[in-house]
Amino acid sequence: MSKKLARFISFVFHPLLMPTYAILLLINMNSYLAYSMPPELQRIVLGIIFFTTFALPFLMAMFYIQKGMVSNIYMVNAKERTLPYLTAAIFYFGGYYLLTQLPIPRLFSWVILAAAVSIIVASLINVKWKISIHMLGVGALGGLIFSLPQLMLIEVFRPFVLVILLAGIIGTARLVSGRHTIGQISAGYILGFTLEWLVLRYSDLLI
Length: 207
Hints:
This protein has one domain. It is 73% helix and 0% strand. The chain contains 9 helices and no strands. It has helices at residues 3-12, 18-28, 32-35, 39-66, 82-100, 106-125, 133-152, 157-176, 182-201. It is globular and about 45 Å long.
């Protein structure tokens, strides 16, 4: 894999985009989730998630760069990531709250809540060690798919295999780009997967 391709993959599967991809997956699966919301409500949900989990955190990151609080968009220095991560978590919690106010299945809001928790944990880890947030994102997507049979009694073998392959591609891209070590990549995936699964597994306790 060339470095140019690695950068492209890292951009397309940016961790801030993973919640949007996750919700798109849920909406397009052949389950009650696909039929429980009219198209207009689906667009509202996607709009809320896109703006609170991608657009607003990205704009704030640009603001921090402009003010010299962060050196660049890559945030190579792990300690630089703390403020943007915590800011993103605030927006994620805002998105979670907005989703709870809509007449939609609670799974959608739980997915965003799990993402917010993952970002907070990752920001704490990054104070001492640079964990891969790209792998955290795809790991959370894997944790979501792994949890679906318990939540909705549907078969997810093929989507789960595809996410495993995607994780391998993203992990390779991060290695080729020189952004992370194998340990940081593995830790990111395991953390994202575990936190997403735990939140969804015990989501009834959050009610």
